[in-house]
Amino acid sequence: MQPQIAEFQQSIDDVVMLQDYPNAVAVEHNILIYSAGQLRSDALNKTAIQLEWAKCWRRGPGVLMIKGFFTDTTCVDAMSQVFQQILDAERHVAIGEGDHFAASGTNQRIWNALEKAAILAPAVFVDYYSNPLLGWAAEAWLGPGYQLTAQVNSVSPGGKAQIVHRDYHLGFQEDRAVARFPRHAQAMSAMLTLQGAIAHVDMAIASGPTWLLPFSQRYDLGYLLYRQPELIALFEDQSVQLPLTKGDAIFFSPALMHAAGANQTTEVQRLANLLQISSPFAKPMERLDHQRMQLALYNTLSVADLDEEALDVLATIISDSYPFPTNLDRDVPVGSITPTSGRDLLLQALHQGHDRTTLERQLQDYYWRRET
User: What is residue 197's DSSP assignment?
Assistant: First the structure.
């Protein structure tokens, strides 16, 4: 079971036809372009749109862009200020050479940006993450109960490009470890995660938006291929970039060959919020304290003017939404075949008007029941 560069080349020799994706507004360099305004105005067509996106990520080009993902970028600017506060507070922490965005020594990364932002600025967090289109994308690929983590990258002028790679899970394994997984498991890995990126500044090509190789996620053995010199050369020759405007977002398969570009500007601090959305059936890359996030945001959520769709997105993002694993001797299902999840408790508390102290007691009991 050895990957072959010729087979890989054959798998990516394809062209996106716009008529195959009727909800897209354009195709550029084999990347599908969607208009957030048009999507929001066509909410009754949500299921068809999600099926179209899933087709894109699985056997289509593997990547799509949503222009105007944030139509009003006020909340993007507010979150950028939160990110800067975190970056300033962590400036003394050495990132180390192991961080592939810190190679120049001046770039910065925020690990677990999701939890840190929730604790530092609850109102900004609610405004930013209540975007229903985030839920549309996540559920299109992963279904309900998805798990979100976020990492922020701030790339300085002169910041170097990444080497082509695939992402978590198997993209974060050495070749010898990947080779132990059968081919069907390697293919399945890509269905457990969806990658996203939100532009927090205008990203002209010179600033280094991500290089992408459409259709490259279709090759099952790609996790064993991307470190090979022939693949690196092919990627450098055939990969493409698109500029992004502040508030745009891209979503792509973790198996898509990609690499952040070099920041060749002298003035643009390239700032992006990278979203890693995991299936409820998989282990996410980062460990989050969901109880801490729920309690930090609860009072803000209690008075926020959110429709059910926006609340659904937020509740999923900040909660332990999947009821397993648990201790079934203590966490006995009542009136259902599954135990209660942390997301269930949060929504029940909000709908019943409980105060924060009541929710805290319920969550403490919930996590005690789940302990092994």
Answer: E
